[in-house]
Design brief:
Low-confidence stretches: none
Helix content: 40-55%
Distance between the termini: 33 Å
Largest sheet: 3 strands, antiparallel
Mean pLDDT: 85
Number of helices: 2
Strand order of the largest sheet: 2-1-5
Radius of gyration: 29 Å
């Protein structure tokens, strides 16, 4: 979270610095008569390709992150429900994304909804 705030501040400071330099260059430059515009102005190629590359890297990273969340949530894990009073253990196979921390119920792979009592605890492990 701190990294996001620092990155945002860095972007803002960079933009302010860019605007100040550009304004200073405009005031220092002597007023010259306007030149006729060329028919097809050339874009700065390096800046264009850098911006395009950065955009592609960001989109690829976001797509990979979303894929990892989906892939991790679709893994099948074993959930053991342990009754604290009797010590009995019941095992269920569950998709990892269906188990939410702090909730006392979950859905199994075969479609059953399991609701735990207050005296039961849950352990989640790999398959």
């Amino acid at each position: 979270m701190l990294l996001k705030i620092l990155f945002t501040l860095l972007i803002i400071i960079g933009a302010i610095f860019y605007v100040r330099i550009r304004a200073r260059n405009r005031t220092l430059a002597p007023m010259a008569p306007p030149l006729p515009r060329p028919v097809a102005p050339e874009r700065p190629r390096l800046a264009y390709y850098l911006a395009l590359g950065l955009l592609l890297i960001m989109l690829t990273g976001a797509g990979y992150y979303l894929f990892q969340i989906w892939f991790d949530g679709s893994r099948i894990v074993t959930v053991r429900v342990i009754n604290s009073n009797t010590g009995s253990v019941t095992s269920y196979e569950v998709y990892k994304g269906d188990v939410v921390a702090g909730e006392s119920s979950f859905h199994t792979v075969d479609g059953r909804t399991i609701t735990m009592a207050a005296v039961e605890r849950m352990e989640m492990g790999g398959k």
